[in-house]
Write the structure tokens for this entry.
Amino acid sequence: MAKKETADIGAGSRLYIEEARGGTNQAAPGQAKPRPAPGPAPAEFRLIGKYTARIDGRKIVTGQAKYTQDVRLRGMLSGKILRSPYAAAEVVSVDLGPAKSLPGVLAALQLAEGRVRYAGEQVAAVAAVNERTAEKALDLIKIEYKILPAVVDWEKARDPNAPQVRDGKPNVEKFNEAARGDVEKGFKEADVVIERTYRTNFEIHHPTETHASVAAWDGDQLTVYDSTQNVHGVRDGLARALKIPASKVTVIKNYMGGGFGSKLGLNEHTVAAARLAREAGRPVKIVLSRRDNSLCVGYRPSSLQTYKGGVKKDGTLTTIQLVNYASGGTGYGDEVSEPAIDLYRCPNLKVEEFTVFTNTGASRATRAPGHTQGMLGLEGFLDELAAAIGMDPLELRRKNYTTRNQGDTGLPYSTKGLDKCYEAGAKAIGWERRNKRPGDGSGPVRRGIGMSSSIWWGTGVPGTLADVVLYPDMSVEAVCGTQDLGTGTRTHMAVVAAETLGLEPREIAVKLGNSDYPWAPGSGGSVTTPSVSSAVRDAALKAVERLKQVAARKLEAKPADIVMEGRTFAVGGTSGKSIAFADVYRELRRETVFHGEHGLFPRDKFAFNTFAAHFAEVEVDCETGKIRVLKHVAAHDSGRIINRQTAESQVVGAVTQGLSAGLFEERVMDSNLGYPVNTNLRDYKIATSLDMPEITTIFVDVVDDRLNIMGAKGLGEPPRIPSSAAIANAVYNAIGVHVAEIPMTPKRVLEALKRKEAGS
Amino acid sequence: MEKQPDRKSPGGVSRRDFIKGVGTGALGSAVLPRLFAEDTIVTKMGRVPVFDRKNITLTVNGRPQTVLVAANETLLDVLRDRLELTGAKRACDRGECGSCTVLLDGEPVYACMALAIRADGRSVTTVEGLAKGDNLHPVQEAFIEHDGYQCGFCTPGFVMTTAAFLAKNPSPNLDEIKLALSGNLCRCGNYVKIYKAVSAAADKMKGA
């Protein structure tokens, strides 16, 4: 029952990657026409590309911004979920009776039958008049389990005799392979061949606001307030899970306390809230606990990447061979090979990736899935190759620079500002100050400088819609069914509309976060800014066209001669005739809607990607193993920057998260019971204000006019991709041995130093 | 109307209730086993009153309020669920992240770790009460101007911590700012922007 209904839940990283590539959301052929490049050059923009404070800042700093956790509806019940205490078991029977007869309990549901495959999988749920009663009711539910053998540790799960996680399928599955050229030939051509292994561990999203949903029925119409990155996706998912028409479902997300990929898909508890609300006849709110965030709403999959590669003395890469073992619990791991395939010109390449299933909750897309892990491995390997031939690591990267996609298309990049990122970043960090050979320094505290490149998708999604609505009283709305994750979407919509209409951002009323609004993709894959800004710009340009027509009529001139200046429409030239904005808007007589859309782009002729280079300087205490990051420079090519204020925050935040994952973050499992043991924010370490270095943000401003009418690309994930890797390489430069595993805890640093001493 | 559950029964103490019980010290352990038998009980601290609920009077954002609270109810529960003040956020619910920071007699406290009965007779300021009418507090202005937030969920906590900190240290250096903020977590990772906001707020307050 519940199992089947929710079978399509949990869009994992692989679907997400499809979205990031813009692959699943192609507009119907002929629907959207590619539009010509927009008018003014960047310097002429009044607002775009400049600093604009968030239009909703006042709401946030006064506590008026309402998050899903804060939603309170009349008669609302508290929903709670009972989760399997076993990593693998057969649910033999569920008796909801005693829970249902507890006063104050209005609904109870069985959510699982048959097998449960991880500790934390939902089994039953109740809705009661308050949280305490709901908790008490969970204790009264009688469940008989037949405990089954489980495997929690992914390395043990590789053993063919390990308990099988999935029915009738092995735990290890090859899920990606790629090849070009002949790697054996490449090894022969190389002057130096090395092999290295890099490991990344399980990193949990832990958004500050835990996942939450409030479901309310009005007859057969369902409204769900959800802490989600994807109002339309959740709407469609709920309709499928509940077998009701999508037209009867509205999903609303006003404010959200972080997601980072963990809130991209429909959650099982959201379906449970809707079903409980239907049974109880009253709204139901379910808020997951901090502990639940460690159990059942995803994490970044682990990776174990072995690179074997060859290079000539002059730095020419001849071959890269990559074998990766990833684990995503009951879900898939991430493919980490995209950077190895795409980033450098290398004629011979072979990739094999395996995912290992275990009895732990399923992974989810985590800010730049796969690339973040892959960049740690690939860029670490490049640094070790550079050291092997005594070359400047940055020179090695420049030597193998490519202006064409190296993967399956081979198309030229429409724009690629990575070289500019290298130059600007190296200058800002003082690249020449690095140890010329890794570990050259002396004394117990060593300093080092390292860098990492980045590549990601981050194009807009064709077919994204937005409306601009003009009112006769000169008020203006920008409406789009996108969502603001805290990235500043509301403000960039206002900036684009205001820029185009000759108004100020605060004059634009932005409406978003509602599945009843025009379609926009889920906010994942760094697609939101390019998608939404272009659709808003398109709508606003149409609005301006209409206003000019009206002004032309009033001024008895041709629309083509009308120019916008100082809140008037004027006849160009020296006539001196003009009409105030207010008088033109009034002539509209009623509210007027203009529809905008993100057009198609020539993806058959060009490759479109975002690029970045990060540079870090660290200090490593070789006696304690403690790492301190002193300075971090992030140079980015994400096309045209819409709002520099919030763009900088995106970068700063991703550097912080990369530092946090690089040094501290790791889910620790009890490998017998299948429970994480660090389920709170004290034991699961995340970076605090005391850990931060100086961060410098650089945008190289390479506008891609072929891509969309804003020339903008995404920025959500790109800064997360090289941030841990640059720090790891800086540590390598400091101590002369690559720690090769994140988080680089003091213990791992000391072990690496021991390896170095032992000469291995 | 459904029958209201019996809130008095302490049966099945959850971990959360337990922790909150422990927070009351001797009083807490006295409350749990004996609820309705008598009004006072002898402990090694002497004779203490026993109650499971109590009317408390506190001043919230300048306005006196009387609320009947359960002995194990936190200040955060009362603010969010009874007084409709949802500015303080519940993110970790165990004193790790600072998202629920409010001022109790001007001192920053984690509202999730403060029992509501401890606020009896005291004054509470939440993020909703920091501005004077339409005039934002300089800390609030500075957070907007310097983008000292992303998702904004931790922001009420950061704003309250900063307001209390700058009241004590009007001219902090960067290290002092970092230390003052170290009890608040920002998962979006905007710390370096927050430092700038705090520093700018200090300048504003000195200028004012």
About this structure: Chain A has three domains: 2-12+68-150+207-289, 32-65+460-597, 370-458+605-758. The longest strand of chain A covers residues 445-456. Residues 66 and 255 of chain A are 6 Å apart (CA to CA). Confidence is low (pLDDT under 50) at residues 1-11, 24-42 of chain A.
